[in-house]
# Entry
Amino acid sequence: MLNLDVTTKQHKGMNVHIVPTTKFKTITITLKLKTPINRDIATRRALLSYVLDKATSKYPTAKQVRMKLDDLYGAVFGIANGKKGPYHTLSFRMEIANEKFLTKQVSLLKDALNLLSEILYNPYIEEGAFKPAIVTREKRTLRSNLKGIIDNKVAYANMRLTDEMCKGEAHAIHTHGYEEDLEKITPAHLYDYYKDMLTNDIFDLYIVGDVKVDEVMDIVKETFTRQHNREEAPIDIAHKEIEEVKEVTERQQINQAKLHIGYRTNVTIFDQDFTALQVFNGLFGAFPNSKLFKNVREKHSLAYYTASRLGAYNGIMIVFSGIAPDDNEKAQAIIDEQVEAMKQGDFTDEEIAEMKTLLLSNMKEALDSASAITEMLYNRHAANLEFNLNKSVERLEKVSRDEIITVAHKIEKDTIYVLTEEEVK
Amino acid sequence: MKKVRLDTVQETLYKERLPNGLDVFILPKENVSKVYGIFMTDYGSIDRTFIPIGKEEEVTVPDGVAHFLEHKLFEKEDYDVLFEFSKLGASPNAFTSSTKTAYLFSATDHIEKNISLLLDYVQEPYFSDESVEKEKGIIVQELKMYQDNPGMTLYSETLKSMFKEHPIHIDILGTEASINAITKEDLYTCYESFYHPANMALFIIGNIDPEETGQLIRQNQAAKTFPEAEKVTKGSYNEQAAVFKKEKTVHMPVSVPKVAIGIKDSKDDLSGQEAVQREVMQSILLNYLFSKSGLYYESLYDEGVIDDSFGYHTSMEKSYGYTMISSETDEPRVFAERIKDILLSIKDLTLEAGAFQRMKNKQIGFGLRAMNSLEYIAREYVDLHFRNVDYFELQKMIEKITLEEAQEYIESWITEDKLTVCIVEAE
# Structure
């Protein structure tokens, strides 16, 4: 049976999740903040993930912050801005060496949490605003990163597909921000939003490593002294009807075309048949033994990569593949055939059993990574769903052939996005 | 099996050289769920010119054969290896680098079957004209994917600027033309020369019993026959000490220009140990100069010469070595000037003891963190094994480097003829 020892405690409105385990030689600390996705705040939040670790009142330059991290035996620190279903998240992640593998006696965990709290609560402020030079500089970095998305063709095609498919839905909002919104942000304006964020966001702290719950809680109580919000803002997820399949073609000077197709599965993590959908996704496209890989790549040699990916909260499934521009129609026809085959139940009981083994194995493997453990816990917690590995395994084992066919019939193609070469003149 | 207790990391490693020459390493870890196995040959894309086993004349095979061969080992006459692993609930993978080819899996169940499958599919090649033809379309798409990636283009073009003769300047995948020229015979020639057990190593790590696993591997190997191990004579390259081209600009559609400075390493043939020592030394010095808490990062960043994509890495093998420093920037030429000025001035730098120690600690911390990953331990261990270095001795190697040695090194490291600038920008 699968085992994960998780203790969740509340401290001043913040949820503290502690996973004591001897598996790792380091301790991984992740602080997650979330709030409903909203275009008005998206760019400011994105910018905060760049600004916050550049200066604090105690360490007024980025170099001093980094030197402090070096002093903690080269602790790793980063702030990531992202999406978890309907929420815009900010994740502060820190990884420190476990003291017992170091020759010197040090109290790294306490120092690390102190530094995390310093970065979060005590940014360098002058005259009621972040330091203008830092904000200007970080706006430039963010702007350049936003411009650069188009240089990563897979990421770009995914973004463009979502833009087109989910127009008007929260899911289409870019949590990495918008160039045009960046201009308007002033250091004072950003600081005001930062204060709102501390007041309104929901805070979850995860600590995974060879630690003792009581000792961690003592340190947390000492280092996190602010009261946090526990009231979640209501979220409504609108159901969008598909009238007809949208087709979007975009042309660039490229060698390989990107074919990205968006489907609405009409099943999400909150639904009973979500586990059946995961098995469907496995048989259909998630793995090298799935229909997509077997047919698009192995049988027809059309692509190096081809797969499908599920969005647990929005029920959107994306099929993506890199193909020769001339093969677009052929590839689409083969993908359509695979969806149809799934609806017809064209898979054996043996294949279902193999897929369950594979999914179970992936679940077990996730337990060997501190960040995977954190994400797994947060996925369930953020959705207010119970975390119980053994129940998940039970659900997986019960998924029947009929259930897989039933979810297959719920799936609707929504948008076909093709990024392809420029027209030959 | 020989049992080695590793006190610093509280682990025990088992190792053995089998009668057929295969080096086997087993590292049991009780509290994890999975098992990871890697089977690696000391053969990569640079090994294109050699005297095949049993032949007298040197041959040069088409570029991209090592990588093509890696793909084709997955296909058998009557089964597909990927599907077999999937049936066992395992995730298989493989990669080809300039100097190594590796086959791997991770799994939580059917461990014995997975290990046997790994050994068997790598050791039982089946190449046919038809399956070689079929693979070409797939690999050409892999190549095109990289060609549309400006970061990969920068990397590959910088290598081409640094090296004139040494095959490190050739892309691992080859070119569309060379891929299309590859035959079944090329694959067999390379396979027979470089996949002898004596040229390979196996590392299994995770939730396993070391004795039982050792026994399984021993029996698997004893049941197979291999020819006597022969050392393959690899071609030698008369590579000049100076870079091939000092400057290059490549045009492709890219929204933010990318730029790299390459530092070519002196061409003296190094022992594996020396190469690794040099790699460690250069990594510490690069951190001293360019990490976020280093000497120059802050001013470069504040001036807008670099952004958060700035990075550097150093790679030191027996027959070649280089360092690359790169960033996205609106000012690629300013970047090139600034970084070159810094690199040419560091011979006059006096290293500061406190900062130097911090960089060493940082390197040690990085090593410890990396040990959370079974994949990383196994890959690094076998890779270093082929360079005659014990992965678990790296920490000591770092600790031993003195300020005086580093000072001496930095004074002679860089001269202008070793530097190249490569820019990728839109037309």
